[in-house]
Amino acid sequence: MSDIHQRRVLIIYTGGTIGMRKTAQGFAPAASVLEEFLEDSLAKFSEQLPQCDIEAVLPLIDSSNITIDDWNGIIERIARNYERYDGFVVVHGTDTMAYTASALSFALEGLSKPVVLTGSQVPLSEVPSDGPSNLLGAVKAAGEGRYGEVSLFFNGKLMRGNRVSKTSMDSFDAFETPNYRPFGANNILGPVLNDPAFVARPYKQSKIAVLSLVPGLSADIMRNLLSPPLQAAVIQCYGAGNAPHLDEGLMEAFRKVNGDGVILVGVSQCREGSTSFTRYEAGGLLQEAGFVSGLDMTLEACVTKLYYLLGLGLPKQEVKRLFQESLRGELTLSI
């Protein structure tokens, strides 16, 4: 937009590599690094960037320590400032950024303003760093306001937040959307079915587990891991959504867990494609055991969507029904 310098963006700084400074004990978060960089950049590019304010969430954390309480802190800051700003940037560590992006997409119902997450693989204080381009790109995207939803900006790509996964520990091109193209990449955007009025809905603590199938996994271990008070589990299956269906003990364990009220979600261990229980007999038996398909959702979207739906206090069958519907463009309905 030509009037971008008249728009206002709030930067919520939670920590992460981007704002770290080298110390005797290694890199550690330092609030001044981000503030000094932004002050200098906004002075240089005042006509190309929106006006920005920074709110640091203290203490700054490594994102591997992120909790539901931290998500709620971000949600609260966006809700409190929603009418005052045209967009928001959440500066975040890369390890769990995709989880936070998905979590915010579900919690911010009726969102019509950009919420853009970003961070970096190398601190701003080091050369070379991907921090400057990521941060300024996110600020510009939030100021332009083209996409009124939660997104993630990294390495020149603006991506739907609940479609993103981190795919590299080292590369500047650290995030991808395996089943969805970045915005502006000849993409036909799916609908974001937000409610008409903005509501920020904080998360509640729910008991969710993520388990991956491996050859030799015993029924006893699976039964013990999935026992109540667990509420839901995301099981990473083989291929299109398969499990060792000849292991009757394992299949019986799944049926018992489902009967005990635990919601079982099956997703593929493959990054691309959609989980389907109707393609092979091995998948069909999972469906008979009570599994619901994660379709083409990322693991991050599956986990945070379960947190969101369970937090609404809905009956089990309603959670399972809504889980397979597109609430914020997190899955492809045509698959």
What keyword list fits this structure?
Rossmann fold, 335 residues, 9 helices, six-stranded mixed beta sheet, alpha/beta, single chain
What's the structural blueprint in terms of helices and strands?
Blueprint: E1 8-15, E2 20-23, E3 26-29, H1 31-44, E4 51-61, H2 68-80, E5 87-91, H3 97-107, E6 108-109, E7 115-118, H4 131-144, E8 150-154, E9 157-160, E10 165-166, E11 175-176, E12 199-200, E13 208-212, H5 219-225, E14 232-237, H6 248-259, E15 263-268, H7 281-288, E16 292-293, H8 299-311, H9 316-323
Parallel strand pairs: 1-4, 1-5, 5-7, 7-8, 13-14, 14-15, 15-16
Antiparallel strand pairs: 2-3, 6-12, 8-9, 10-11
Helix pairs in contact: 3-8, 5-6, 8-9
